[in-house]
Automatic annotation (TrEMBL):
A GO MF label: acyltransferase activity, transferring groups other than amino-acyl groups
Protein name stated in the entry: Histidine N-acetyltransferase
Source organism: Biomphalaria pfeifferi
Coiled coil segments of this chain: none
All residue ranges annotated as the N-acetyltransferase domain in the record: 7-150
Higher taxonomy: Eukaryota, Metazoa, Spiralia, Lophotrochozoa, Mollusca
Domain of life: Eukaryota
InterPro entries the UniProt entry points to: Acyl_CoA_acyltransferase, GNAT_dom
Length: 290
């Protein structure tokens, strides 16, 4: 198809919700945008844009400012099926680039995250835009029933003090375990100045297929397996107490220092072991320095 003409790119509004959702669900029913749309429109660090053709909303894309204004991540890209391959996504992307360059001149990095399946289709395009793959993180998706969750040995973990509100808000948190040390602990030091063993970030949102609880695991080299287990069990116990849905999905992503076999084993011990029907197994992060 030839490139679309008469495409209007503008800031998304609350009243666009139904039109944006009508574009279609992404990620095999696990789309987070329906749950987070209001936040995306109202948060001053998120810039959501829509594309209109003859008054119809046919595309959506947004920038998310992170790291205290040093980084921006493009998220939630989508175009209505009958308007794809017409250059609309390029128009949205260029509009986001112009907008963020004007409002946030101190930005240093652009990030885009994609699944391994999507990456296989867009990798060459990303490279042509100066984006370089920085790392791949495997992730697993498991179905579970809330009534089957059982955690009896949960170790409390401290919520990391942070001024990054995107991490600590109504449906996100981060927990940290400090590595054992022979040094006299300095309790006055910030977490960033201490030896961190394991950090886990979690978020949860409702989708077409139920609640999805996402945990990202980051570890130091030689981190404690017990710390990883305790973090996972803590999140499961928290999820059980949330009790938002009867049947949900638990998603975990992790780096090279974490054993997938052990992650599955720890989750199986507390009632999470059924494979979810999800075609992606890897999250790929791309970066471009401004």
């Amino acid at each position: 198809m030839s490139p679309a003409r008469g495409v209007l790119i503008r800031r998304a509004r609350l009243e666009d919700y139904d039109d944006v959702m009508a574009i279609g669900c992404m990620y095999n029913g696990r789309d987070y945008l329906s749950s987070l749309y209001e936040k995306a429109v109202n948060d001053p660090d998120i810039y959501p844009f829509v594309a209109e053709v003859k008054g119809q909303v046919v595309g959506f894309y947004m920038n998310h400012i992170l790291d205290g204004g040093l980084s921006v991540m493009k998220r939630a890209a989508r175009v209505y099926p009958s308007f794809r391959k017409m250059g609309i996504m390029h128009k949205l992307s260029h509009a986001l680039d112009r907008h963020v360059a004007t409002l946030r001149p101190g930005l240093q990095y652009l990030y885009i995250s994609a699944s391994d399946v999507v990456t296989s289709k867009v990798e060459n395009e990303y490279k042509s835009l100066g984006l370089k793959e920085t790392h791949r993180k495997p992730f697993i998706c498991l179905d579970y029933y809330t009534k089957d969750l059982s955690v009896s040995d949960v170790t409390d973990h401290v919520c990391l003090d942070s001024n990054i509100k995107h991490v600590l808000d109504e449906n996100k948190e981060v927990c940290v375990t400090i590595a054992p040390s022979t040094k006299t602990p300095n309790t006055a030091a910030s977490f960033g100045a201490r030896d961190i063993d394991v950090v886990t970030f979690s978020e949860w949102f409702k989708t077409e297929v139920g609640l999805i609880y996402v945990v990202n695991i980051y570890t130091s080299e030689g981190s404690s397996d017990q710390s990883i287990r305790d973090h996972l069990w803590r999140h499961v116990d928290f999820l059980r107490k949330l009790n938002l849905c009867d049947k949900d999905i638990f998603e975990v992503s992790f780096g090279p220092n974490v054993s997938e076999e052990k992650v599955r084993s720890y989750l199986k011990q507390v009632g999470i072991f059924k494979h979810s029907n999800f075609p992606f197994t890897m999250e790929v992060l791309f970066e471009r320095k401004f």
